[in-house]
Amino acid sequence: MKKITAILVSALLVMGMLVTVSGCGKNAADNQDQEKVLRVVTEAGFKPFEFKENNEFVGFDMDLIRAIAEAEGYKAEITHMGFESLIPALQSNKADCAIAGMSIDEERKKSVDFSTPYFNAGLIIAVQKDTEGIKSPDDLKGKRIAGQVGTIGADACNDIKKQDPNTTVKIFDSVGEAFMELEKGGIDAVINDYAVTYEYISTTGQGKTKIVGDVFSADDQYGIAVKKGNKQMLNVINDGLEKVKASGKYDEIYQKWIKQ
Amino acid sequence: MSHVMPGLFGINFIQTLMEINGLKLITSNLDVLLLGALVTLELTALAVAFGMILGLIFGLAKLSPQRRLIYGIATFYIDFFRGTPLFVQILLLYFGILPMFGHVGDFSAAVIACSLNSGAYIAEIVRAGIQAIDKGQMEAGRSLGMTHGQTMWYIILPQAYKVVIPPLINEFIAMLKDTSLVSLIGVSELTLRGKLLYSVSYNAAWVWGTVAIIYFIMTKLLAMLGDYVERRLATE
């Protein structure tokens, strides 16, 4: 009898938790309709696109998404997540859009829809200051290389490893740890987006690291991601982006954050 | 019976299940995850082994308040590593402190961080284990002409280790789970491999579900080993 009671009580508890959880989801959606909040997710370890200063989300992407939200009559509410969790957050309706220096690629397009491109990116190789003989991705075969989890830089690392299995690939949660690893000599090179790497080598990494070779994957462009099939949100973003570009606000934000 | 519930418990059901993308994802990547589990086990075993050495040394030091210096060092060591998150310790050691002593690889750094952390907890386990032994044992040893060290080594410790085994297994299980934090510095253990698989598939339920099951199996086996050792000790 005691056993049965125990089972019943735990079953009730589990059900109670499930109801609470699903209830929470619904409330969030309701509130969003009333207040017109744009729930944005990002990975705030990607200076100058998104990072935190004085506990505020700042950077190119952050200014851009706030401007887009404003143009469309929304208030942007930004939260941080691991880069690899941004797309799942959209899929499970935890957020309306993700802006995180995210390159538009075929693999991701299977899971999300992208806005019109808002930034021309491309990859670059960063090495220690005294490193010689690395000029292109081909020179990285058999070397120790690193990138950030879920990025096209990490994909490029894995492609090199496919061509030469002697290559060691290390993947970090955020690109800052990959740069630290480069500084202390744990790896030979970091493959990452040009603008972010440039920002790093000209600030924190100055005198210790340098950029080599040309930008590759130069057709790479950043887009704002929304849940696959969410036409309404995609229209809001694209329309807002167009307005921000037309008003000159986009150029202003570009001048502010991107080093020429 | 089979046509009453077509396909539910038969071949069709298994085929439907196989067509679920998540299952395909897991079956084709299970070897990668299991290799990660091996790294996790290796790291845990090394961390707890070194942790036991550190724990014994600092646990004994913690029992000699009259030796001011070593008591002070032991107290600081235990307080620091129990009082700060392992997350912070790993990043501090790997990027902050170890580079001052030359190049230390990620796996070695992970072993060092986890051992130091584990050692602090084991020191407290050792101290409690020794204090659980009746004072009369030490007094008896001393009155027979044995030194303090001899009594400790031949009389107290052999009794204390029985008391110490259950919390030690507990520490083993806790450490096995805590090693997931070394994914921060790029050690390719189970959690990092899960993270990488998740970053290309975005399939939280299947990837993290599988990772959870693998962790669960490992900790369950450890717990069973603990039960077995405890039973053996009880009958001795």
TrEMBL record, chain A:
The answer, when asked if Iron is one of the entry's keywords, is no
Instruction: Name the Gene3D superfamilies for this protein.
Output: Periplasmic binding protein-like II
**UniProt-listed InterPro entries:** Iontro_rcpt_C, Solute-binding_3/MltF_N
**What CDD domains does UniProt report for this protein, alphabetically?**
PBP2_Arg_Lys_His (cd13624)
Q: Where is the signal peptide?
A: 1-28
Q: Which organism is it from?
A: Syntrophomonas zehnderi OL-4
Which ranges carry the Solute-binding protein family 3/N-terminal domain? 37-259
User: Which terms in the GO cellular component ontology are assigned?
Assistant: membrane
The residues covered by the Ionotropic glutamate receptor C-terminal domain are 37-260
Entry keyword Cytoplasm: no
- The entry's keywords: Receptor, Signal
Matching Pfam families, A to Z?
SBP_bac_3
Highest taxon listed in the record's lineage: Bacteria
Q: Which GO terms describe its molecular function?
A: ligand-gated monoatomic ion channel activity
Q: What is the lineage of its organism?
A: Bacteria, Bacillati, Bacillota, Clostridia, Eubacteriales
Task: State the protein's name.
Answer: Ionotropic glutamate receptor
From TrEMBL, chain B:
Record-annotated membrane-spanning stretches: 32-57, 69-95, 205-223
List each copy of the ABC transmembrane type-1 domain by range: 37-226
Where is it predominantly found? Answer: membrane
**A Gene Ontology biological process term:** amino acid transport
Q: Name one GO molecular function term.
A: transmembrane transporter activity
Listed A to Z, the keywords are:
Amino-acid transport, Cell membrane, Membrane, Transmembrane, Transmembrane helix, Transport
For this protein, the record's CDD domains field holds: TM_PBP2
User: Do you know which InterPro entries this protein is assigned to?
Assistant: AA_ABC_transptr_permease_3TM (IPR010065), ArtM/GltK/GlnP/TcyL/YhdX-like (IPR043429), MetI-like (IPR000515), MetI-like_sf (IPR035906)
Q: Which family does it belong to?
A: Belongs to the binding-protein-dependent transport system permease family. HisMQ subfamily.
**What is the protein's given name?**
Amino acid ABC transporter, permease protein, 3-TM domain, His/Glu/Gln/Arg/opine family
Q: Where is the signal peptide?
A: none
Q: Which GO terms describe its cellular component?
A: ATP-binding cassette (ABC) transporter complex
